[in-house]
Amino acid sequence: MIAPPRFSRQEWLFSLKSFAASMLALYLSSRFGLPRPFWAMMTAYIVAHPLAGHVRSKSLYRLAGTLLGCTASVVLVPSLSASPELLSLALALWVGACLYLSLLDRSARSYAFMLGGYSAALIGFPLVETPAGMFDTAIARAEEIALGILCASFVHSLVLPTGLGPSLLGLVDRTLGHVRRWLDNLVGTSADEDTGERLSQDRRQLAVDISQLRLAATHVPFDTSSLRWAHGAVRSLPDCLAVLTPSLSALEDRFDALREATGEVPAEVTKALERDAAWLDVAAPSGTESEVHADFHARAADPSDSPWVRALKIDVAAHLDELIAGWRRCRTLRDDIAAGLDGRASPRRQRRLAARSPILHVDKGLALRSAFTVALSTCAACAVWIISGWRSGSSMAMGAAVFCSFFATMDDPVPGMHKFLVALLWSMPVSAFYVLGVMPLAQDFGMLMLCTAPLLLLVGGYLARPASSLAALGMFFGVAGTLALQDIASADWTSFLEGNLALFAGGVIAARTTAVVRSVSSEWSAQRIRHSGWRDLADMASHPQRASERDAFSGRILDRMALLVPRTAGDPGPQEGTAARLALRELRIGASICVLQQQRHRLPEAPSARLMAELARAFRAQAAGAPAQVGALLPQIDRLLLHSLANANCAPAVSALVGLRRDLFPSASTDLQP
């Protein structure tokens, strides 16, 4: 006997609110006399999300995308309807262009571009044979979708809304916890048996959490709680955390270097780190702290040490200063977020904190490949439609466009497409039951609501579960899409089977085209991500004006590290940890190059320029697939390091050169070459 599903309270609440919003949209669209009221019902489910802020942001961007798609269909279809081939090509290129723009924007705004693409296909293809009614139909679709959006936003915002605040604050505290455990490990206070593996996982998870914070920040202005008044703090916190990461990673590496050079970490270094760890949660620096820091900087420049040990101590002192300043800024931002939740945030301060949008990692080549795939798939479906003269061929073209767009963010979209197609097949009997059995017998809206409630409430519960959301979405799309696309008053078995088979055929065409043209392995994607990091390092070394982009570079490298984590999770042996360590190494190299570019006016002009040029050449070669030739750089780094040690004003340059030496030549001799 099959046990009934057991949903949590939150899952039932989400399902009930989604059902209420869809029924309200269906009722209002019917009362307003809109031609396809089930479009409004389907939209209310598409924009649904357990968090009210996500519903409102998705609603806004879906409305913008729908208007964009309506405009494109009104322009393209009437003017090209006399030439089906040109119209197919034009709509396919439009869908591809919109998908390309969507993949270049990894914020919530990307939804608008993707919707703008396949909305033109959903509206345009069914009206190819009747272009005269294109404007009226486009207006009706926009009204139906807008009504569904308004109803979903209204219900999810007013009926027991679930705010983003508690989950966001929990994510912030978890991220800060990863940073604090990393520091405690440097101090030596972590004593678990599996400390090493847990800390390695913490560092990988730290990158993932920072990327999640960046993406969550795009939904904060739409939240129903007071959190939206702390938007500036939420946007600034990931950048602050990204700056902390290279300092922690560099300190860990420099402690290893000190052990190699002297056999142990000097006592003054460990004492300074312990004092900094004790001061991290203090609200403001004290006079005693300033005195201790001044004393430690003086000890770091002790001429009795060897040049290499002295350089390492100067580097440790610089990173300790960065660490304590960055941590306190993170704690202040965390308090600002908590104040925003309590309604105590200062709008003026939040506007001052709000920074420009972060530049995250994008793969333009893979985005272009995805755009080509959706255009090719849509053209292939249109070719089958035109050649066969299939009456329901428009559903095939729509299916190809929607399937390719919906799964474009995956490395290999084909397994997801197949899972969705299986759910679509299972939905066909249910669709037939509703379209051909229930709808003709439902005499009023109350009867219709009672008939659809069991299915929609069940599907809504599964939509709230990430593990089952894809299959539930396929089932919902199959039923709701049939209701939206079919003329219920005149539906029969022939039109039903033709429409559903055409939609399924479009999905199959999309899956097969994607398998041939677009599917890539996780290893291939991971390698492209690493190549992007090397190109960034080459650009920073060759363009001194990019020295001010250290924060943006740190955020982008950590974002790439977050993208690498799931792609290397299944690798055998230590490969997962290796990918994270290499990303941290590139993060440290980038920070060192930025500081060195800023300090070049304090260094001999010709040697420093030659060093930057050869670094850029080495990283470009590595990005092109050739081995990086960096062996000749060691003597140059050592000469510049000795010059900087002789100059009391060159402590930042010393720190940067030590970083380059350790990251490029970790096994080099501890004797600097004059």
Encode the helix/strand succession as letters: HHHHHHHHHHHHHHHHHHHHHHHHH
Helix/strand-derived category reads mainly alpha
Point out poorly predicted stretches. 572-576
- 3D shape: elongated
Number of helices, counting only DSSP H or I runs of 4 residues or more: 25
Total beta-strand segments: 0
Short description:
With 674 residues, this protein is an all-alpha fold. Helix content is 75%, strand content 0%. The protein starts with 8 loop residues before the first helix and ends in a 10-residue tail after the last helix.
Blueprint of the fold:
Layout: H1 9-31, H2 37-46, H3 52-80, H4 84-104, H5 110-124, H6 134-158, H7 165-187, H8 195-217, H9 231-262, H10 267-279, H11 287-300, H12 307-341, H13 347-353, H14 364-388, H15 393-406, H16 414-441, H17 445-463, H18 469-485, H19 493-517, H20 522-542, H21 550-568, H22 575-598, H23 605-623, H24 633-645, H25 651-664
Helix pairs in contact: 1-2, 1-6, 1-17, 2-6, 2-18, 3-4, 3-5, 3-6, 4-5, 4-14, 5-15, 7-8, 7-9, 7-10, 7-12, 8-9, 8-21, 9-12, 9-13, 9-21, 9-22, 10-11, 10-12, 11-12, 12-25, 14-15, 14-19, 15-19, 16-18, 16-19, 17-18, 20-21, 20-22, 20-23, 21-22, 22-25, 23-24, 24-25
